[in-house]
Amino acid sequence: MKNRLKIVCCAALCLGSMWACERRTVEPEVSSNGWIRDDFMWDVNDKNGQLSAFFLNYAYSYLPTGFNRIDGDFLDAATDDAIPSRINTAAESYTNGRISVMNNPDPYWARSYEGIRHVNVFLANIDEVPITDEIKAYRKAEARFIRAMLYFEMLKRYGGIPLVGDTLFRPTDDMELPRNTYEECVSYIASECNAARRDLRAESAISDSEWGRISKGAALALKSRLFLYAASPLHNGGGIETDPVQKALTGYLTPNPALYDSVLSANQALRELNYYQLHTGTGTAAYASVFTARKNREIILARQEALNFTIETQNAPVGYTNPAESNGRTSPSQNLVNAFPNLDGTPYTAGDDHPDQYSNRDPRLAAVVFTNGTRWLAREVEVFEGGRDKPNLGGNSVQTRTGYYLRKFMGDFSSGSAYGNQSHNFPIFRYAEILLNEAEALTEKGMLEEAVEAIIQIRRRAGILAGADNRYGIPAAIDQENLRLLIQNERRVELSFEEHRFWDLRRWKIASRNLNSILLGVRLLRNEDGTIRFEPVNVSRLLFTDKLYHMPIPYSEVIKNRQMIQNVGW
Amino acid sequence: MYLFIFPCVGKTELLQQIEDSGKVFRNELTDPIAPAAVDSIAAGVAKGVYFSQEKPISVSAQDAVYTKALEKMPVASFLSALDGRLAGLVVHRSSGQPGNEGVSVTLRGRVPIIVIDGIVRNLTVMDLEGIESVTVLKDAIAVAMLGVRGANGAVLVTTRKGHEGHQEITFNAQTSLQQPLSSLLSDPLRAYDYGVLYNEAQYNDDRFLLNPRNIAYTPEALDAYRTGADPSAFPDVNWRDELLRKRSRFDRYTFTASGGNEWARYFVSAEHFNQQGLFKTHDWNQYDTDTDYKSYSVRSNVDLRITSRLEGGISLLGRLLRTNNPGNNLTANIFSGILTTPNNAYPVFNPDGSFGGNRQYPNNLLAQSIHSGYSVNTKRDIMTDFYLKRNLDDVLPGLWIKARASFTSHVSENIVRNKSFAVFQRSVAPSGAESYTQFGTIGTQANSNNVDAQNRMDYQEFSVGYKRTFSRKHGLSLLALANRDNIVSGSNLPLTYKGISGHFAYDYDEKYLLEVGFGYNGSNWFPEKGDTRYAFLPSIGAGWVLSKERFARNLKGVDELKLRASYGLTGWDAAAYFAYVTRYGLGPNVNFGTAAGSLNTIREMAIGNPSIGYEKAAKLNIGIDTRLFSNQLSVSLDYYQDRHSGILMEKGLNTTILGQAYPLENIGKYDFSGGEAVVSWQKSFANSLSFFLTSNIAMQDSRVRYIAEVYQPHPWMERTGQRPGQLFGYTAEGLFLTDAEAMESPVMEGYSAQAGDIRYKDLNGDQVINQLDQSPIGLQRPAIHYGLTAGIEFHGIDFSFLVQGAGNRQLLLSGNSFYEFQNAGTGQAYTHHLDRWTPEHPEASYPRLSLGHNINNHVASTYWLKSGSYLRLRHAELGYSLPAAVSRSVKLESIRFFLSATNILTFKSKELGNADPELFSGQYPLQQLITLGAKIKL
User: What angle, rounded to 10 degrees, do the helices at B219-227 and B191-206 form?
Assistant: First the structure.
């Protein structure tokens, strides 16, 4: 009996100890995986709000980028300004008709809603963190600006999108939301800009170490662009849709001329900040340094990246080898080159085969493209047939398809044998754009001479000769139609490769003409005596159909949301 | 044929063994028919997880394979030895690389859990001679006690133990010659053909361009490739021949000793495995750069009778697996490099002896294999099990208690001694002066070591059992068990399973059978306060042995006839690491400031799912077992239906408006159903001729019942109702014969189709071929797997073979081992491309050629579906045992010599060309082996 008891006790002990000696399960706090739990993330003990500041930092990574963004190419290489040097890359889909609901190499939808959620998580929790109201206010405003920016980026691509406000969705929520109308989106973004502007810091309050933070000017610049886009023919009553429900998604049903006034008042408010101006100097070097001098008064907001030389290795001519190996990804078109006026501001008309076509031209030309003979890495660029930068190796080797390479944004590596780390601004907003917005709005309102004034500021900085009449090549008494064309051309030249042309062609509703065309290039043939002969070539046939005025809503969204209306034609 | 290898087990031992599991044997146990019938101890017992039952009164669905069959196979992982042997089990392979074969198995369509000696352990490489049996547990009752770990079935491995009274020492030595099978459909093109086809592909692609590219290979270059006069400037390298050996060697040595007496029984074994790889090596290295694999494993299973009522035992396994690789683990890189390096890419060596290469190909493949150092991965494992069992007959006859503990430790360590190399591109100036351009740098050898995986597991178990027969009619068996399994992997917090489980079996006169089992367990990776952490999962099974009925007694030739059925709920705890916790973590840094300072960022990493729980499966199995004609013939049939629900997955309706990845939710519902048949026949004749044959066939079907699928615009696009993993693609209707036809037919959006492109069926009639035209393609039939083993033995000569195959199998060919000029045109092309479409050759088997990815032709469609059904002579063996008189004269109990062949013969569709139906994508190939060996028993 005693024995039995012993055994039973033993057994009970064994069983009990297995259960009981278990320590309480520990949930991960900050484990090796770098996890931070909810309550430590938004922590009442984080007196300086360090973790929440890091959280806000991440929101900045949702700001637009632009360098070789579309699978290694510029979005501008999907316009008449350039073509990817590689055959059949994703960017070419926009001009060869391959864009579909399944194939859009500029997928902004998912990434934008990700950023919007990030901002909403921040806004929902930041009040837990014990930082001063002043800091809290401008950090919230920065987050709200980024959210507004993401909505604008979607608006210009797709038209109206579902606005989610401050809602922080749970996976189980009903997210089959309908698209808001274009007008609703414009007013929402504008009101967010107003709210952000109130709390954002003034430009002067941003220290050198904080350069790149969003300040008041960015909110106003976004408003300026937002209203300019809204006022443009495609969106302001001129939509391609016939069904009013569809049309309201991508624009106003009837023209609203007051939108141009909104552009002007946003610009006026921006000028009243008394901070922004065109970057100092005139001519090629001055223009080039807008993109390489990290802090300058022209930049309202630029995408901040580490010092590097990626843009150089991606786009400089292909003839350079290790350690300056370059890939020549982008081939600017003859169409773009021809858009640069002469040095005196008059349009270039001498022809694609003019043997001396690069001299006496707008100084910005030299800052934007490599032409034959441009000095780079201690030699002259050779894009003539068989030259080092157009060796014609055949097969899949990459070289320029147009006779040009992209030079814009690069540091000055005309001498030396290798690249070094360099600042590169990809401007999200810069003052030159504000001036061009101003000129466009004034022109549409019929205030032509005021518009000419704004263009003259741009041309003066560009280094164009003032001329005897001090009009920098702009004809006296220019009429509205011609001024409109001149401004369109000026915008193309000044803002080239900054992701404007792609959208400008659409909002002006001229894409069906400009993008149904032949993309031109030149073939350079070197004569026995070393002189160069130019031979125009048709590089590619650009195709555009009306449905391309708006990007398709991703297929994967449409089949998950019965309320989602696809854009016309897709 | 096995008698000299394995102890002949007498009935007394059988009884003894079965007494071990607690039940006094009542009726005459008829020798069950199994291919290895002499493994009768094992074969007489039906195993479940944690319990066992005599086969005649078991109601569960299972199938087993024993030492004899396993030890024949020249493989490292026992999983690789299971092809075609167990009904319902399918073996999958992803590579043929020694020691890194990527073998996995599915059981009735799901990946089963592996249980080694009663403990869940994912360890599949061990000494094959040390395994007594591998049993697959297919129905609910057999895995009931696993609770939330049982839903996918189990592979149960039982290691060998010593037996009282039979001392036995064996030594088995074998050596094999390995030859690779082809993992490519056809050979890479010679340089000249490559150039010609490249020009043709480029011409095709550029036909509609305004400004076509310059011709890639000039007539002069093609001529140079054809004549081969200047191999330095115009190389033509067959990379496979340069890099790979035609044959290699593989040796295995195994020593075992077993025996015992009343007080102690033991089984010890040691095995050494030495398998060469495929890579050629070079004398200049003082180290090995081949993909060699060596393993050493030592096992000791000892059981002790401590007192008349107390037993105990210790099982130990130590193993060391050592895999060598060229460079820093470059084997896979080299094999994929072969697919992207055309024969004319660069010369292997320049005329001056340096490695060839150029800007596009700076990594000379041969240099990667023999001139970039080496790396060694060593896996070290220790597995120790301990148990004590007290017989409580003094308290209550038939009662016992048992405690078990186990500790397992695993370390995988890499030692890397790699170095970088340079390649040189030779150019000759018109003056004849040679110059060399260097790509890459010549580096010194790095030496580093790191541990890429480290984990340990401790396990405790306590059980109480009771087994007794009342009135010689009522058989009763009860088992209750509590266990705790704690797994610590890397720096993760431990994963701890805890639970209790039980099994109850009753039989009336071994005629009416009833089994009930349950598991109640869960893990700490589920929400602590949630109601999903622990699950109670019961199962029930019943059987009726008709042959025991009075009315069946007179049925002639029927020795056994049993109907059985089981049904139960099982679970699958697929918890990801604390997936219920919403968490934040560091993101990539951002830059601010005029000095572009780098600042930290934090983001929301994942949304937790607070209601995450285990998956469930309701498993129904109905079976019939019969033995006929004096046990010569046995047939088992099974039908099953497993309804899985709560499968963790991201829901189909996962709109991105949420702004974050969806957490996994318990929403999926899949059904698996099918049938299996096992037929065995065995006969011995008086003149020492014996013969056996066993075959199995399994049919496996499955259905997606629910995945929260998106609103598909057309019914043919729906995944729900199809098989999980069903291929979707376009329906090909041959090739366009003319450009005119191509231009007026529906094609891919934005694609300028031309003659020779694949024409697809426009399912929705919208004149465009797009995602709306994709429907299920390929065979819509259940998968069929079968195997057949047969053997004959006559006067010391034995012969046996295993045939294994798969039916209703289709392969979708794609990628750079099959398509032409992939990787933007730099990829390889193959001789099957010579039969491409051209205007002169419209009856081609391959579409017109193009460079890089062709959005029309290189997509999933019926055009690229090939039959993958095959029938393989997996293994055949011829053995000869010296007559006893001869072996005794050299003081040996027996000697057997054998010659075997593995993977020697395969019947498959011609569509697959040279490719092996298992590995056909250019990866490390499967090997065929010819093995010569001897087994000596002292």
Answer: 160
**Nearest of B538, B531, B505 to residue B612 by alpha carbon:** B531
The CA distance from B355 to B243, in Å, is: 14
Assign B2 a pLDDT band (cuts: 50, 70, 90): very low
pLDDT number for residue B839: 93
Pick from B484, B602, B605 the residue to mutate for testing the A interface (most A CBs within 10 Å). Answer: B602
State pLDDT tens for residues B588-626. Answer: 999 999 999 999 999 998 898 888 889 999 999 999 999
Instruction: Considering only the beta carbons, identify the residue of A57, A170, A208 that sits closest to B601.
Output: A57
Q: Looking at this protein, which amino acid is placed at residue A96? A: N
pLDDT of residue B697: 95
- Rounded CA-CA distance B207/B197 in Å is 15
pLDDT tens by residue, B203-252:
998 888 888 877 889 999 999 999 988 888 899 999 999 999 999 999 99
Q: How far is CA A505 from the centre of its chain?
A: 15
How does pLDDT run across A17-44, given as a tens digit for each residue? Answer: 555 444 444 444 444 456 787 778 888 8
Q: Hey, which residues 124-143 in chain B have their CB within 8 Å of chain A?
A: none
Output the pLDDT for position B686: 76
Residue type at B307 in one-letter notation? T
Query: What ipTM did this prediction achieve?
Result: 0.89
β pairing state of B131-137 and B62-66: antiparallel
pLDDT band (50, 70, 90) for residue B844: very high
* Residue B107 confidence (pLDDT): 93
Judge contact between B850 and B205, C-beta under 8 A. yes
Interface contact flag, A169 B657, Cβ < 8 Å: yes
Side-chain-facing half-sphere of A360: CA atoms under 13 Å = 11
DSSP designation for A570? -
DSSP B310-358: EEEEEEEEEEEEEEEEETTT-HHHHHHHHHH--TTS--SB-TTSPBB--
Catalogue the E-assigned strands of B420-532. Answer: 423-428, 434-439, 448-470, 474-489, 495-508, 512-523
Tell which residue, B490, B425, B418, B488, has the closest CA to residue B459: B488
Residue B771: predicted pLDDT = 92
Average pLDDT over residues B804-814: 92
Distance between B626 CA and the closest CA of chain A, angstroms: 42
Residue A266 main-chain phi, psi, to 5 deg = -65, -45
Label residue B889 by pLDDT band (50, 70, 90).
Answer: confident
Q: Exposed e or buried b for every residue in B437-474, given b needs 16+ CB within 10 A? A: eebbeeeeeeeeeeeeeebebbbbbbbbbbbbbeeeee
Check B583 against A294: CB less than 8 A apart: no
| d(CA A458, nearest CA chain B) in Å | 25
**Virtual CA dihedral for B760, B764, B768, B770, nearest 10 degrees?**
-70
Whole-angstrom Cα distance, residue B303 to residue B267? 9
Report the side by side order of strands in the sheet with B583-592.
A36-37, B583-592, B597-606
Distance CA B130, CA B235 (A): 52
Q: What is the dihedral of CA A304, A309, A315, A318, to 10 degrees?
A: -170
Query: For residue A139, what are the contacts with CB-CB under 8 A and spacing of at least 6?
Result: A49, A52, A53, A56, A126, A131
Residue B31 predicted with pLDDT over 80: no
Mean pLDDT of the B675-696 span: 89
Using CB atoms, pick whichever of A88, A120, A541 lies closest to residue B210. A541
d(CA B530, CA B521): 14
Measure Cα distances from B229 to A109, A393, B323 in Å: 57, 22, 41
Q: Is the peptide bond before A323 cis (omega within 30 degrees of 0)?
A: yes
Best B583, B718, B774, B849 member to test A by mutation, with max A CBs in 10 Å, is B583
pLDDT cut 70: percent of chain A above it = 94
